[in-house]
Amino acid sequence: MPVLGSPLCAAALLAFVVSSVSVSLLIRSLQLGAKKGNMTKGTAEDQDLNWRRSALLHQLNERRKEIIPLLSARGSEKKMLAESRYFPQQHQSFSAMFDYNLWNEITDGSRRMLMDEMDCDSLVGVQTGNVLGSGYTKLVLKVVLREDQPVALKFVNEQGNDMEKCLQDFGDPRGCLELVAYKLKKEIVLLQRLKHPNIIKLRGHCMEEPGQGLERDGGGRVTAILEQGYPLQMIQLLQSPWEERFRVCLGLVRLLHFLSRSPLGSVGLLDFQPRQFVLVSGELKLTDLDDASVEETPCRSDRDCLLQFPHRNFTLPCSAARFCRDLNQKRNLYNAYRYFFTYLLPHQAPPGLTHLVDHIMNSTGELRADINQTLGSFEEILLLYKSGLHLDNLPPSIIRDYTVMRGLATAGDVEYRCWPSFSPRGCVLAVHSALEGMALCSAHPQCTSFSLSGETTWSGHLLASFRSGFSHLLPDGRSEVYLRRAKASEPSGV
Ligand SMILES: Nc1ncnc2c1ncn2[C@@H]1O[C@H](COP(=O)(O)OP(=O)(O)OP(=O)(O)O)[C@@H](O)[C@H]1O
Ligand SMILES: *[C@@H]1O[C@H](CO)[C@@H](O)[C@H](O)[C@H]1NC(C)=O
Ligand SMILES: *[C@@H]1O[C@H](CO)[C@@H](O)[C@H](O)[C@H]1NC(C)=O
Ligand SMILES: *[C@@H]1O[C@H](CO)[C@@H](O)[C@H](O)[C@H]1NC(C)=O
Ligand SMILES: *[C@@H]1O[C@H](CO)[C@@H](O)[C@H](O)[C@H]1NC(C)=O
């Protein structure tokens, strides 16, 4: 890591970064002024124009300043520098230790961070695909790159509210595009710095230099190339098996745990909503990071550390260092509770696990547990669920009610529906063992047999298909069929 020799150098670098802001914009506005006819300063219209330009420049400057701390070195390096006498405390967040390569990368798109990353070349000649989603700021398209790789491309949404509002305020299409593009640039920096299985993977990015763009003369188009997922459909998720819903919540908690101690410090998600996430093969991934914050909230007393939600307020302690302790972490956790856990977690939880689920609901709903403890509770549930320990009250005698036929599968099935099934047509449930399958079949009046196909879910549970009849059997090495005997004489109460 390059450590500059003197505070003077650091200051110079900082000055460079901040003062080079949109020189192009300034030049353009000067040219514009000249074109308008050699007016002496003074007309009201002129003043308004000047005011708007400087306001836009100010905004651009602010956006840039937001990115600088994200480019800075990791926590440990920060600490080392803080302790070195070269850097006065007040220049900490700006001290010249930010990754200069990354800054170049973001500002001119001239370099590649990693050899395996995709860049503008990867996008040559791709067909525009269908829209995966759009929001206030960004537009996301699905495209297929060479070698049949599906990816999601994220652009500035030129029809979005952010752009619209900027145009209203400043009336400068190029300046506004640049302003809105900063959000996407910030997101790209964050995606480069925050790598986690529950954060969407940045496959690469493309930044055309100003004037180099193919479709416009304008200010450097920015494209993020991302792993492709599917927007989170809360309604659909509500109807899916508990195991799937638990997986989403577990992924979220693992993500929040990572964010609480990330390379950038504790990260708060300021705009925390289900639409900021997508699913990639059933795994939850954060995709919208432009509203992430690594700031800590300064305070003088606990009263400054109020965490407000529509139906609940919390007051957090103001630490000795005069920051609201764990504010980012606690805000994230309560949002996870109110947007995810309350809808997804309790409903249809396995009976042997409900007490643990209730405990999580209560401790997060009251913000009594921190993210470490919450992750601990989730991992405990996962362990129990995987090991089947929560099923210890299954009656072993139930085995006598079933005949097993190995190496066979059924054909001509007469299906019935159950809920919540992995298959919309029939009754397909995740079971820990054949024994749990028997218990379920015996609990369904329509069930006369079920099969285990050898297929498993993410947690390692077996997928069992239940049915009320079939016409014949076929050889199938991986499959087992369990026939329920003497349905009429069935003992009740399973
Ligand atoms: N990698 C991806 N794969 C599939 N869909 C995605 C992907 N990334 C984003 N989306 C979809 O695109 C939408 C818009 O993306 P994003 O949330 O980043 O834009 P935004 O303008 O910041 O949105 P908002 O107005 O919600 O803040 C998302 O809500 C999501 O549904
Ligand atoms: C306006 O300025 C241009 C150069 O900037 C000059 O050539 C031209 O004569 C000026 N016109 C008037 C009306 O002053
Ligand atoms: C939360 O605090 C705000 C501001 O102090 C107050 O107006 C609101 O009524 C409080 N809400 C609840 C649910 O206590
Ligand atoms: C937590 O449990 C307490 C006591 O049982 C109860 O009063 C409270 O409403 C619960 N809170 C939540 C969020 O479930
Ligand atoms: C969580 O645990 C880690 C160590 O595993 C610790 O450094 C951190 O301070 C803990 N966070 C909280 C909020 O307790």
TrEMBL record:
Residues 126-494 form the Protein kinase domain. Pfam families: PIP49_C. It comes from the Eukaryota. GO terms for biological process: cell differentiation; ossification; protein transport; skeletal system development. InterPro entries: FAM69_kinase_dom (IPR022049), Kinase-like_dom_sf (IPR011009), PKDCC (IPR042983), Prot_kinase_dom (IPR000719). Coiled coil: none annotated. GO terms for cellular component: extracellular region; Golgi apparatus. One of its GO terms (molecular function) is non-membrane spanning protein tyrosine kinase activity. PANTHER family: PROTEIN KINASE DOMAIN-CONTAINING PROTEIN. This is Protein kinase domain containing, cytoplasmic b. It comes from Gadus morhua (Atlantic cod).
